[in-house]
Amino acid sequence: MTSGLRRRLLLLLLGPLFSLTALNVWFDYRLADNASSQQDRHLLALVPLLADSVIARGVSDGAAPALLTAPPVEEFLNERPGASAFAVLGLDGDVLVGDAWLSGPPPSLREPEFSSEEFGGVSYRIVSQRVNTVAGELVLRLADGSDSRQQWLHQMWFKVVLPNVILVIVALLSVNWAVHRALRPLIELKDAVERRSPRDLSPLDPNASPDEVRPLVLSLNRLFGLVNTQAESQTRFVADAAHQLRTPLAGLQAQVEAWAQSVNRSGKADWRDRSASSGELSSSLGAAEITLSAEQINKLRGAARRTSQLANQLLALSRLDSQSTHTQAMQRVDLQQLCEVQLENHLDAATAKSIDLGLDTAPALAWGHEWLLRELMGNVVDNAIKYTPPGGRVTLRCGAGQRDGRGPVHPYLEVEDDGPGVPPAERARVLERFYRVQGTVGEGSGLGLAIATEIARLHQGTLQLESGSTGRGLRVTLWLMA
Question: What are phi and psi of 11, to 5 degrees?
Fold first, then answer.
C-alpha cells in the first residue's frame, strides 16, 4: 500500500515538473526559430540593396561586374568579419564577384530560396535570388554565419538540456526524499504491525501517527479489541470447561481406583474361600466371574486415568494459547531443582514398571516461566516412562553447553530413554497435536510433545529430538536462553 502511495505521489509531483521542463525547451526552440525568421527577413531585405550595388560600367560578356556596395550591405559585411559573405553569380552558377565557396546552381524560380550550409567550421544561413540588375539577370547570394537556430542546436546541451536535466534530477531526489519523509509514519506503522506476534492484540499508539492516519489506527485498535475479546472469551470457555471436568474426573478416578482395589482384594479372598468349601466346578465359575469383573474394573480405571490426563493436557494447552503468557514477566528458573521435583513426581510410576529413573544434572539457570517448564518436563518424562518397556532406563539431565558442539553456551533440559524411540522421518510430525506414530504400543492422546513444542516456542527456545546415546530410544533436549 505504501509503495503504491509513494508511486502515485511521485507521479503527481514529478509529472507536472517534467511537463514544464519540456514546455520550457519548446519555448526556447520557438524563440530561436523566431530569431532565425528575423534573420531571414534581414537577409532578404539586403538582396535588393546588393542588386542596386551592381553598376554597368566596365561590364562585357564574361567579365565581372563592377560593384559600388550600398552602405547597409557594407555595414552587414563589416559587422560580421568571418561570419558573413556575399557573391554575385552568373546564370551558370559561377561566382563573378565575392566568395567563391558560394558557387552553385542558381534558383530555378525568381522567388528567394533559403538554405543552411557549413563552411570553415561556421554554419551559415544563405539566401539566393535571381534578380535583374543594370548588368543583366544575375544571381545574388548573402550568407550570415550568426544563424541563431544553428547556434541554438550547438549550444542546446549546455544552455538548455543540461540545466533542465540537472534540475529534473535534483527535483527527483528532493521530491523522493520529501515523499519518503512524509510517509515515514505510515511505513513505521506497517512495520510495527508486521513485527507483532499473532497473539499480541494490544492497541497501537494513535499519537505516534499523523492526523491523516489516526482514523486508521483507531479503527485497527477497535478491531484488535474485538478480536482480543473474542479470543479471551474462547480461551476462558476452554479453560473453564477443562477445569470443570477435572473435579468430576478426579472424583470418578478416585472411586474407580478404590473400587478396583476392593474388587481385587475380595476376588482373591473369595477364590480362596470357594476353593476350600465348594467343588471344583463352582470354584471355577466363581473365579471366572470375579476375574471378569476385575478386568472390567481395570479397564474402567485406565479409561478414567486417560480422560483425566487428557483434561489436564487440554487445560495446559488453553493456558498456553492465552495472552497471559505474553504479559507475564520471565524469571530465573533453577533447572536442577526443576529436575529433582520431576524425579520425585514420577518415581512411583517408574518403580511400578521397574524403570530406572535417574538424574544427571549440573547447576544451571535460565530465563522462563517456571510453571510452563514444569509442565514441559512433566509431559516429556511421562511419555518416556509410558513408552519405555519394563526394566528400561530414563534419565533427566540439565546443565549448560553448546548446541551441536559450537556457538554460544545455552542452558538446557533433557530427558533420555532407551525405549523404542521415534524414527527420524516421524520426529517432525510427533510434535504436532494429536499425532501418534503408527504401531505405537501404549495409550496416549498425542499432546505431550505438542505441548512441549508450544512451551519451547514461548521461551524462544529449541526442542530437539535425537536418538539416545546408545543408538536406541529417544533424547528430547530443550535449549533455552541464558
Answer: -65, -40
Q: Residue 379: which domain range?
A: 329-479
CA dihedral 440, 442, 443, 447 (to 10 degrees): -50
Q: Are both 252 and 366 inside the same structural domain?
A: no
Residues 277, 414, single domain; the answer is no
DSSP-derived 3-state class of residue 429: helix
Cell, residue 316? 495446559
| C-alpha cell, 251 | 472424583
Same domain, 372 and 273: no
Confidence (pLDDT) at 344: 93
Angle among Cα 398, 404, 406 to the nearest 5 degrees reads 105
- Torsion over CA: 351, 422, 313, 308 (sign): negative
305 and 339, same domain (yes or no): no
Q: Are 274 and 282 in contact (CB under 8 A)?
A: yes
pLDDT digits (tens, 9 = 90+) for 350-378: 998 999 999 999 999 998 888 888 888 98
The CATH number that applies at residue 390 is: 3.30.565.10
pLDDT (tens digit per residue) in 94-138: 888 888 888 888 888 888 888 888 888 787 888 899 988 888 888
The last residue of one of the domains, among 276, 305, 321, is 321
In whole angstroms, what is the distance from residue 249 CA to residue 242 CA?
10
Task: Looking at the structure, tell me whether residues 316 and 370 fall in a common domain.
Answer: no
pLDDT > 70? residue 202 = yes
For the entire predicted model, the pTM comes to 0.45
Q: Would the CA dihedral through 200, 205, 208, 214 be positive or negative?
A: positive
